[in-house]
Amino acid sequence: MSTVTVIGSFTDDELCAHAIEALRDASIMDFSTFSPIPSHRIEHALGRSRSPVRWIALAGGILGVLAGLAITIGTTYEWRLNAGGRPLLSWPPFIVITFEMMILLGGIFSFFGVLFLAGLPALEANRGYRARFSADRFGLVVRCDDGQSARVESMLKEAGAEEVLCDAA
Q1: Do residues 73 and 93 touch, judged by C-beta distance below 8 A?
Q2: Residue 97's CB: how many other CB atoms inside 10 A?
Q3: Confidence band of 169 (pLDDT split at 50, 70, 90)
Q4: How far from the centroid of its chain's Cα atoms is residue 51's Cα?
Q5: Tens digit of each residue's pLDDT (9 = 90 or more) over 108-165
Q6: pTM (2 decimals)?
Q7: C-beta of residue 122 within 8 angstroms of C-beta of residue 115
Q8: Comparing C-alpha atoms, which of 42, 30, 39 is closest to residue 6?
Q9: Rounded CA gap, 14 and 133, in Å?
């Protein structure tokens, strides 16, 4: 059984969101969407939860705090630098290094987290992508078996697709 790509083009995001909901109701989950603008309707139709990037950034920030404290406390005990007769563990100078490490590692973790979660860099082109999907149309590309292609085509047409194309792999 071969895989078929069904490509639907929609004039607005509401119709595309209805098509996504119809596909999800039919338990067809192997599809990609393309839109010229960010759309909350499509995001809600996809049913994805919130991005975990915030938790990755938090983990990086906490790791940065721990690294900053380890560096400052470790170097203080290792080198025994006593400046002006103050206690070895003087917190005010440690706060600056700790804060900077928190920001640095939080930013690095966020950057690589976004790259990882977005699947970047994309090493292969998106199958079924059309240039119109970046200009003025919303696109829905569904990968399915030969037996399901007629059903998927009718679902996209019923949802209001302006154009439905079938591309055999």
Answers
A1: no
A2: 15
A3: low
A4: 7
A5: 999 999 999 988 888 877 788 888 888 999 999 999 888 888 999 999 999 999 999 9
A6: 0.68
A7: no
A8: 30
A9: 15
